[in-house]
Protein 1
Amino acid sequence: MLYLVSYDLRKRGKDYMGLTEQLQHSPRWWHYLMSTWLIATSESPSELYNRLAAHLDPDDSILIIEAGNHIYGQLTKAAWEWIYREIPKYHT
């Protein structure tokens, strides 16, 4: 599946490197916006969340949504190329 992962990390001074490493541990990922990632994985949303949750503070927020075909925005050409390359693999 292809998921959009967005978060608000609220604990100042906390080292969130473990969260970044877990996101990058996904089979394929894209990260261009500050707190938003696109993650390509065979995991369910709850499995992905469980993998990331150990690296979050209780006051943090995270949202995982399955990416769809209806998208629009202002991104670089490279970003759109990655997105359009990945979405057909998960949505027919």
Protein 2
Amino acid sequence: MAKRQKVISLILLLIMTLLAALAAVTSVSRYVFDREDVITGSFTNLYFSHNGSGRTVIMEEGASGYTGYLSLTAYNYDGGNISARDISYSVRLPSEGEIAAGQVVDAWGTPIKLDNADAAAATRNYTRVGFDSGKDSSTITAIGSDETLMPNETTDMLKIERSDSASAGSLTFDGESIYLIIEIVKPYRELRPFIINTSTSLVSVATSAIDTSDTHFDYPQYSVYVQTARHFSTAVENVDVASPVKIELSWSSSSPVIFDDGRFAADTADNIVRGEIPADDEEWDSVWNVTSSDGGVTVTLFLEQGSDALLYFYVTDPSSFGCTIKAWFHCNKGGVYSAEQYTLIAGAASDGKVLETGIS
């Protein structure tokens, strides 16, 4: 009898163990088959701009070719829109394959034409472009959330090298137009070709109209970028290479043109200060000043060799205005100082015109 009860107990124990195992399997099965993994993705618009297009780079000849420098500022905004993402980018020349194909292809497979055949061909004469600081990328960071985004910008110095082989030939004042590519690598890959100009001039100027949230009481903003060569030794006879070059930017308009002197003073505080303009027969110092009149403004700069100056102007009547540039090098002949005008300014017309709209 006792033995029979043990057998029954053992059978019941086996049945309970089996039921427990079945329950456990059922529970796990429900967990596995009832669970739903939902994967979501989001795509944010990338707002990015820069001031490189149309700029003229001064190229200076060396032992094996030419070298030039471009101060490039990139922004995490375009118009009134600001990116909600961090942006990392690099700058390069188009590859031989891209030049041959006449296009670059972005990460989505979309071709972007290199429409200027002359610029594409001239790009072959250039051997390298990179960040002069040794970096191969830069980062722009957007600050805050969607409600508190702020515009940011970063400025880097690019070093551009050109060979002087038999196929490339010697570079002239007129220079060349070439392609560069900004390659965005974060948050996703995107390619943006743009064209710059090169020249052997000792002074270059470039302008661009920027429509951004950073306007002056909604007036259109124009930037003027002035660059000087790193060596003045071939400027004019008897040039004083230790002296800065004198630059005048003169605006005329049917209504006031405003120079953002506060912004310029803050950007150049460590290099050039606002001061009295020295006379031609005096020694020249690195100073700047501004004079205004009805419908016009003139900014005078005394820039050292290897200078980059970025100035911002606000035009109250964008339908009628003009801007001209003039330059003088300081000469010292037997202790007698004088100024000799320099007219080979890259980016300006022969009469010094830089911008003109609606002025006869």
